[in-house]
Design brief:
By secondary structure, the protein is α+β, with helices and mostly antiparallel strands. 39% of the residues lie in helices and 21% in strands. A hairpin with a 2-residue loop joins β8 and β9. It is elongated.
Length: 359
């Protein structure tokens, strides 16, 4: 039998193989230690040099041809086997396999989505920034004096200084507020600006109302005409929509923040009857956030002329407002990962906040 007939025989067998096991049997029959083509290659040693050289070329062509057909068929069978496996093992992810263990949206995520929907409706856009900041963006640009208590180690998580750098540029820390992103927004873009920022912040504290990591939302408007009246209207509208209370009583108390002047704390009306807190008209007040007009020094630090531009800024803890809205008593439980807690306070993932539908 000549090599052409052998190749044709194995080609027919290879084409007829319908699984990887059968194909491997054919490979062993042709190219195994005692395979037909292997035996032909072994017989080359019995030939004289001229015949050996001539037959070696023929046998190598036969071997390479059969190997190529084996590899081609193997590729086809592997794809077919994978397709069958995927078909057999597929999961319909549109159905709840275990409805009693349905996933939920974490209250922090839900609250952030609700805030975004409300402020987007008022024309705000989102700005972001890094969690690891330098001293300039976190303190200096925000008008914190050199010896301000917030700069001390007992409040701030400092990282090792940057080698070769000096001054503010050398200090690295975990941002203590999201105001750093407002600084970046004013440095990156020209006024008018209408921005909100939300994300993780870090401070060295831990109790029922404080955790080392928490979330903040801050907002900022910079233009030529914005005043304190606009600030009050913006925040009153937000609180009414967020808490779902029409004509919510609010008041603004004088306060102090290095980066705003004048500064204020905003209170909303509430009642505390029989140990239950109810937001709305009542005989008591609840502090909700800090705010004020952006300090002229902050505008100067980012290259904005305070004689031309002015604006307001505000900030609040996302966990705090989530606790008030959803009746969550302990801040620390947000981060414990208890599935029972998540099932109780979590939200339907398909029920996304939408002002158009009132949800």
């Amino acid at each position: 039998m000549n090599t052409a007939e052998i190749e044709q025989e194995f080609t027919q067998k290879i084409d007829a193989a319908n699984d990887l096991g059968s194909l491997d049997t054919i490979r062993v029959e042709a190219l195994g230690k005692k395979g037909r083509i292997t035996e032909l290659m072994k017989g080359l040693g019995k030939l004289d040099p001229d015949q050996r050289k001539e037959q070696a070329v023929v046998f190598n062509d036969l071997k390479n041809g059969v190997m190529a057909k084996l590899e081609s068929r193997q590729s086809i069978l592997k794809k077919a086997a994978m397709a069958e496996r995927l078909k057999a093992e597929k999961i319909d992810i549109t159905l709840d396999v275990r409805p009693e263990r349905k996933g939920t949206i974490h209250p922090i995520t839900q609250t952030m989505d609700e805030m975004i929907a409300i402020f987007a409706d008022m024309g705000f856009s989102i700005h972001d920034g890094p969690d690891i900041e330098d001293d300039f963006h976190n303190f200096t640009a925000l008008n914190f004096p050199p010896k301000h208590p917030a700069r001390e180690m007992h409040d701030t998580f400092y990282l090792p200084d940057v080698e070769g750098a000096e001054g503010d540029a050398a200090k690295r820390l975990l941002r203590t507020h999201t105001s750093t992103c407002q600084i970046r927004a004013m440095l990156d873009q020209k006024p008018p600006l209408r921005k909100i920022v939300m994300g993780r912040t870090y401070r060295s504290d831990y109790d029922i109302t404080h955790t080392p990591m928490f979330h903040q939302l801050e907002g900022m408007v910079i233009d030529k005409e914005t005043n304190m009246g606009h600030l009050k209207g913006c925040l009153k509208t937000f609180c009414e929509k967020f808490f779902g209370v029409e004509d919510l009583p609010v008041r603004f108390r004088p306060s102090f923040f290095p980066f705003t002047e004048p500064s204020a704390e905003m209170d909303i009306g509430c009642s505390r009857s029989k140990g239950a807190l109810k937001i709305g008209a009542g005989d008591d007040w609840l502090e909700i956030l800090g705010c004020g007009m952006v300090h002229p020094n902050v505008l100067k630090n980012v290259g904005i002329d305070p004689d031309v531009y002015q604006g307001f800024a505000f900030g609040m803890g996302i966990e705090r407002v989530a606790m008030l809205k959803y009746g969550i008593p302990d801040l620390r439980t947000f981060f414990e990962g208890d599935t029972r807690w998540n099932a109780h306070y979590g939200h339907d993932p398909l029920n996304k906040p939408n002002l158009a539908t009132g949800s």
